[in-house]
Write a structure and sequence with these properties.
Elements (H helix, E strand, L loop, with lengths): L7 H32 L3 H5 L13 H7 L4 H29 L8 H11 L6 H10 L17 H12 L3 H9 L4 H12 L1 H17 L2 H6 L8 H22 L2 H7 L4 H34 L4
């Protein structure tokens, strides 16, 4: 069979689509390259402006400032641990709850489901939460990062919607063969729910990685500081140091002697905090897109 030739209108349509997609890609990528360029550029030169996507004067002073902080590597381990453990446990418990919410013959189903939905819109506030964590002996422990995030109503609804779209015949066949609900959940539901599990896992992992307020409110030990919290402290110290230097020096002398600025440190912190997520996302992107499309079709 001969190849089907495109008409002039189809070629025009494809060119316009490609142009729009390239413009969107450029607009998306440019901010990341710009931030990286400023973080790798000499601070004095960056203050003059005009930095694009490449540094004019290469300098690693901002990264040295970030990584020389005493607690930075232990904080990275804490953040990595809470992200991995928290995401895995949250995905499992959310999926388990979602599976139970597909059983409309469950005793108290309507009351339980409405209770979950109402909890999305009502919050007790930070003080009751703080007192609750103290009573549960989560305060100032590593598990204060993990246990409160084991369940999320929105993720449960996404997972429940996905499970409801799976063929009921598979579950019924397994039950007829003597399998119980746990076997059905572990051997049928979970293996078939890869896209939505990857989607929820990504959401939870990003939230865990970026979280720092729980470190501020619910911990006091330096050994429990997370990477985001440490980076926030580094930025505050850089800002305070810049203010102190500016108070002691004239502006011209300050510009000649300064090696870092709060802006350059901020850009370095942005790169350090987002780089791990950027490395992980491409590997689960296809599952993420599929899970969002399927899990949000029905409510």
């Amino acid at each position: 069979m001969g190849k089907i030739r495109k008409t002039a209108g189809e070629w025009t349509f494809d060119l316009i689509n490609c142009g729009i997609m390239l413009a969107i890609a450029a607009a998306t990528i440019y901010p990341f390259l710009h931030v990286a360029a400023i973080s790798l550029n000499e601070a004095r030169d960056s203050a003059a402006g005009g930095i694009g996507i490449l540094p004019r004067k290469l300098s690693f002073d901002s990264y040295v400032t970030v990584f020389k902080y005493n607690n930075i590597f232990s904080a990275f381990l804490i953040s990595a641990s809470r992200t991995i453990i928290g995401a895995l446990l949250a995905v499992f418990f959310t999926a388990m709850t979602a599976y139970s919410m597909t059983k409309k013959d469950l005793i108290g189903y309507r009351i339980i489901y409405r209770f979950f939905v109402v909890s999305m819109f009502i919050s007790a506030g930070i003080i009751p939460v703080f007192l609750l964590y103290q009573r549960l002996r989560l305060y100032n422990t590593f598990w204060v990062y993990v246990i409160p995030g084991l369940f999320n109503v929105y993720y449960m609804i996404l997972m429940r919607t996905f499970i409801l779209q799976l063929p009921r015949e598979l579950e019924e066949s397994a039950l007829m063969d003597g399998a119980n609900e746990i076997v059905v959940f572990c051997r049928i539901i979970l293996p078939l729910s890869g896209p939505i599990l990857a989607t929820i896992g990504l959401f939870v992992a990003v939230g865990q990685w970026n979280s720092w307020q729980d470190t501020l409110f619910f911990t006091t030990s330096p050994n429990l500081e997370t990477l985001q919290y440490v980076l926030m402290k580094v930025l505050r110290q850089a800002e305070a140091a810049a203010i102190t230097r500016q108070a002691r020096m004239s502006l011209s002398r300050l510009q000649r002697t300064i090696s870092i600025t709060p802006e350059s440190v901020k850009m370095a912190i942005t790169v350090v905090s987002t780089f791990p997520i950027l490395c992980v996302y491409p590997f689960i992107q296809k599952y993420f897109v599929k899970g969002m499309m399927i899990g949000a079709v029905k409510g």
